[in-house]
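Q: Hi! New to this. If I give you a protein sequence and the SMILES for adenosine-5'-diphosphate, can you show me the bound structure?
A: Yes, paste them in.
Q: Okay, here:
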Amino acid sequence: MLALDGFLDAHTAPEFEKAIQDEIDADHLQLIVDCSKLTYISSAGLGVFMGFIEELRERGGDIKICGLSPKVDQVFEILGFHALYDIVPDVPAAVQRFTDAPVKEV
Amino acid sequence: MLALDGFLDAHTAPEFEKAIQDEIDADHLQLIVDCSKLTYISSAGLGVFMGFIEELRERGGDIKICGLSPKVDQVFEILGFHALYDIVPDVPAAVQRFTDAPVKEV
Amino acid sequence: MTAIENTFTLDVPSSTANLAIIRDFVTRIAAQAGLNEVEVGQLELAVDEACANVIEHAYGDDKTKQVMIRAVFDEDTLRIHVIDTGQGFDPTQIPQQDLKDLIAKRKTGGLGMRLIKTLMDEVTYEIEPGRKNELRMVKKLRK
Amino acid sequence: MTAIENTFTLDVPSSTANLAIIRDFVTRIAAQAGLNEVEVGQLELAVDEACANVIEHAYGDDKTKQVMIRAVFDEDTLRIHVIDTGQGFDPTQIPQQDLKDLIAKRKTGGLGMRLIKTLMDEVTYEIEPGRKNELRMVKKLRK
Ligand SMILES: Nc1ncnc2c1ncn2[C@@H]1O[C@H](COP(=O)(O)OP(=O)(O)O)[C@@H](O)[C@H]1O
Ligand SMILES: Nc1ncnc2c1ncn2[C@@H]1O[C@H](COP(=O)(O)OP(=O)(O)O)[C@@H](O)[C@H]1O
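A: Thanks. Here is the predicted structure of the protein with adenosine-5'-diphosphate bound:
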């Protein structure tokens, strides 16, 4: 599980990208990203979710995203992330989703 | 009692000035200003404390200031307010100070 | 009687480290112009995307360059201009790509200009490569 | 090798409503320059006082005028210049008054310049009334 805090923009996205890469390198393929303390996201932040998802799903893993504030959720919404990603209310729901649907069907 | 919230600068000082004037107009002369939610003060804010204090003390009243954060307290300190004003930790201490010393001796 | 115009200008080194300063700047002005909370957030994002593009694409991460943001508002509109002196580009030649396609190609970008166009009421580019490239965005003030 | 200099400029209408934008701007830059929390607060206050003086005294609350703040830092110093085109004044003619005396006279001001001088390492004025008045403040970066 990864928890995001503060803002995720073109400046901070590389750090998040590295954190995800580290998880994958450690063969952790079922990733939960808790955004409940995330106050802001730009497309550079969304790009991190985009770059890894194919590889993860091919290998039987996934990213479940949870805890989006209305402000942050709006950005996912506008760009059509809801159709392609599992976005759930909170961490327990994300854990449950991995049980119900380990890899999202798109 | 007056509670300050947010920042007190040249933009917001007139509002605070009016609030104090209203108290004095209502013959409330024992004023406690609770600064525990005050995040910032500039000299325009300090000016409000300066302008009324003589009149209040002449009429047997005073302003007791409480709840200063270290950042805000530093400004009072630099300008020598501690020698001329009763500055106490919290509201109960301010109430107590009015019992012990209704008008500060300077 | 002419309407009162308020003009604000911010000029910062071309570095993603300065996106936070830029966002502070536009959110304060947007609130002053009378936008509501959701609209302030939309403007914040559009300007961030525009400036991130300048930093990355117009200047290729050359931190010795400067990004300028000008905000002007009156009663009816808030206009934001993002100005650079970088290499410029032809915005009509940039294909708008689907999120699904971008993911399939494992891209980590390609959504910024779409966001800008979605979030703002008017978007125009004036490009003079190496001299002055200007992205003009307008948000209407509904009162 | 020359040191890398970072230059930031903010230009806003002369209104106390914009002091919050100005403080945001300088606190962000001060943090980037490496000042600690207390020093950031000191710089924030000094620049606020300088700009409030411009708004009130140099321009006499004329909101059609502009206040410009320029910040430049390198490894050793953070320099802030506050620039106006207002009426100017002779800073050597301003008496430094005691808080006790100010209170006795029921003044609500007279402490701003003292704060600026106390909080900054160097303070100089360059006055050309109606053309360009510049207050230059320096904060040394202790690393
Ligand atoms: N200000 C700019 N200067 C130069 N090229 C730009 C600029 N803005 C956008 N572009 C070009 O348009 C493309 C699409 O931009 P955008 O939709 O923001 O996605 P991203 O920046 O993530 O690639 C960029 O990859 C770049 O080639
Ligand atoms: N930028 C300025 N332009 C013109 N006059 C100024 C300026 N700054 C200060 N002054 C003059 O110096 C005096 C003292 O300023 P200051 O110590 O900041 O106290 P205050 O602003 O509260 O009066 C002001 O009353 C004003 O006459």
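A: Chain C has a mean pLDDT of 95. Let me know if you'd like me to explain how to read the tokens.
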